[in-house]
Structures are given as structure tokens and as C-alpha cells.
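Example A, followed by Example B.
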Amino acid sequence: MRKFCKVTAECGYTWSTEINGTDEEIRNYFKIGSLINVGRGENDRMVKIAKVQISPDKGEFGGFCNRSACSEFPAVHYNAIMDKHYCAKCARSLNEQNRDLYPNGLVEKNPKQLTPELIDLYS
């Protein structure tokens, strides 16, 4: 499963990346306390990993949009029929495409708020 991760080194350097794997596999790859090279060639720079933040699964609140062709995040618009979440752009598109069947909208913004952890993950 593809996830969005934010990694923080002890020196304060942070980077974000997309990675495939379970939460456990990702945490093993970016193991707290391990060294990772954030440089290149002559500019090698080894830093110690201090923190790893991982996004929720695709289609879950705060994760990637549920549409297979979309990789936008965070997904905060809920489709009760699919029991999945979508980004704002895909939610608008789904509502427009289904206006005849669902005049009040098929996908609506979830009233839940993003947690400070999710806001930090995507900032």
C-alpha cells in the first residue's frame, strides 16, 4: 500500500516521500536511531532518524484520495455508499457526475477535523 511519510532527522532536517509498504515495513525502513544518507556523491550526508510520520491508508480520512487515478491528499470528503474518503477535486467531480441520482450530493465534507499530527504530516 502506498503511503505518504514525513521523516525528521535529529539535526532537524525533514523530508517527505511516498513509499509502498505496511506501517511496520515503513517503520523498519526508517528505523528510529538508524543512519540514512540524505546527500549525494561527494555531498554525502548521514543523518540519524528521530521521527517518522505515516499517512492513513488510501481512502481513509486524512489519507490519499480513494480514486485509483488520484494521489491527492488529504482526503476529507466522505462517500457513505463507498465508505471511503476523497480529495476536494474528486468529490466535486463525483457529485457533478451523479447529480441526477443524488441531487443533494453523493460526497460531502466529513465533519471530523484533521488532527494536529495530520496537519503537521502534510505541511
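Example B, a separate protein, is given below in the same form.
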Amino acid sequence: MPKVPFVLLPTALVLWACLAVGCEQNALLADDLSAARTAVAERNWPLAERLLERCLREEQSPDKRWEAWQQLLTVVNSANPEARATLDYLEAMLAEYADDDARVKLVLERMGRLNESLRRYERAADAWSAYIGLAGLTPREILPVSTGVVGAHLKMDLWRDAVPALVQSLGSRDAEGFTRAFMTTDAFPKFAMREVTLSGGTARLTVMAKGAGMICPNMATMLCVALTDADVERAPWQAMFGRAVDKTFNRVSVDGDTSTNDTILGLANGASGVAARSEADLALLEEALTAILGTVSHMLVMDGEGASKVIHITVTGARDDKDAELVARSVGHSQLVKTAIYGGDANWGRIVTAVGYSGAQFDPSKVGLRLCGVERFRLGRPVNDDQEEKLAELLKAKDVDVEIDLGGGPGGYTFQASDLGHEYVTLNSDYRS
């Protein structure tokens, strides 16, 4: 396997952290940036993120674009306020990136103890500083991420003893080695590589992630580093990265629990010399980025703690995409649906019930459902009751399709969730031991 450098990763970066779910957007104001300021002040993170992303994509004024970027640094931190010292430190580092000369040279991952419950910012900074000094780098050249038991204090003596060997190992690991180093309950390393042919040549993308439990949108609870050697400017990279994450990592769930340290870093160093400037090249790069993030986010669901199957939920016929999303997430988060799929029980009633309490607006008499391709609900009534044996066999597969048609409009949404089995309880009942 080719080695992928992950210590010289400058120029364009993005932190895309978990955002609060469920806030309503009543209307888009004419001035996106002004509306975004209000949304940030009101902690309406989803609305702020959408407005700021559009501002970065469409605003021509450099001053307004820079203000949008600064505001986005606030938005993209985890909306879980209880524990996030590492994210606080990371935000402080990101605030240093006020000019195009700023450079990131290293992503430092620490696992085992989150050190977060009392917002131990100073201890987190001390931990990274111990590494920074020996590595000969400045704080603004390192982006830290953390995973582990929430609230457990970092054992600084052990950390300092380990730092010299860590410094000596710089550049000696490939993508798989980096990914294995921050696995916790993961059953396998989650990484992927992809090439994309642009008008000026071939660029590469590499994505490395960890996560198996505490996986819940928005953003899926995990850590991820996405790299490309394409030469792409910061603003279009930011915009495409946000859209790609929304289509992939924001659409997976294992257990409905949101962590404190959700982080995905997107970095581009231009090392290939292959520029992505034209609309066509940017579109190709975004397509490849979305595909590789989709591959890795699917791995998170496959490796859900105690999971044996991936549930692929497709909702169509909704009043709008928002209603379709409500239905998809409701079904994907339902413990009764997840346990039924785990047990191979074609219990369509649990799925229809989850559709009903989703909060979406629809006509129940128009709802349809297909499970593993078999129609079980049509125009609000059960059909094909004689297909239970066939469905029992189909539900033995590792991938289970759930197709829901609300019969009322153009809205649609796709979502992936794991099933829920005995092993999840086993793993999480003695996690700290």
C-alpha cells in the first residue's frame, strides 16, 4: 500500500463538527450575512451554517467573505456544550488562519481520555504544547483531535514520557497506520484512497476515520481527516467540503448518541501541482470527494458497535426535503425498528409507526412501504401478507433496503443506520474496563 504523507498538510482547511438538529428555518432573509449573525447569536447552528456556506459561495466582497469565514469557525464547533476542551483549543488554532500564508503541518490525534467534562482547556493546551516543543513546530501548525472516555483526566506524566517517541515516528506511517493508531472500539480501520483526473492531471484524495459507537447526526460522532494533494483555493474547498459532508457523514447513525468531540478536518496541500480552478474541475473534485466520504461514512455504520446489518432508508414523495429527512431519521433512530431488523423480523408496523411520529406532514392514506424490495404497505394499507417467509430470508442480508413513499410531493432523503443487537449492550456496559 502506498504511503500517504499526513504531516505536511497546509493551505485549505475545514473543521466540520456536529451541529444541533431540529431548529426551524422560517425564512431566508435577503442579507445572508446579517441573518447569519442573528442565527449565531441565537445558537441556531443549522440555519447559521447554511447561510454562511452560501455567503462563502456567492458573496463577492472580500470583507464580507472573511467575516463569514470567522463566523463559521463559531458554528462548526460541536453543539454539545458539556465537554469540549480539545475543540476549544482547536478553535483557538483555527482563529490563527486569518491569511493565506497560514500553514498546517501536522494533525495530532490523542485517544483514550477525552479530558473534557470540566472544560479542561488549560490541560488540553498543556498536552499539545508538550508535543509542539519537541517537534519544532508552532501551535498554529498543529491541529489536535481527541477521543476516548469523556471526563477522564489526561495522565500528563505518561503523555510527556510518550512524546519523544511520537516525535521520532513522524512521517513513518501510511494511511492505515494512522487510522489504526486512533481506533478504540473499532473492529477495523476505516480509510479509503481515490484518484480524480482533472484537466491538468491526476490528484489524489485520502480519508481516515474512526468511530463505531456514539454515532449520531448531525455529523456522526467520530474523528476524520480528509486529505487531497489537489491545488484548490480555500473558499471553493470549504464550500464543496460542507456539501459533501452533508450528503455523507451527516446522514449516518448507529445509536443516536452525540459525542462532545465530533471533528472532520479537510486539508489540501497542492503537492500534486494539479490545479482545480475551472467549474468543471471543481465539480469533478467535489464528485470524488463526496464519493470517498460516502465510502468511509458507510464504514462507520458497518462497524457500529454490536451491529450486523446496515439499513438503507430512502424516503420519497415528501412535501419537501426537510419532511423527508424527518421521516428518514425517525425510522433510522427507532430502537424498535433497529432490533426488528437485527432479529430478521419483517415488522412493517414498527417502520410505519416511526413514520407517523416523525413530525413530518403527510396524508397517511397515501403512504407506501417496501422492505427489501417487497411491497408491504400501499396507500395506507398492508399488502402482501403472504411474503413473510421470503422477507425472513431477505433480512439475513448485510444490507437491508427500506423504501418509504409519502405520496405527496417532490421531497426526498437518504439515510443509513445500523441495526441494534446484544453486543452493543455488552460493549457499552463495561466500556471503561
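On Example B: The mean pLDDT is 75.
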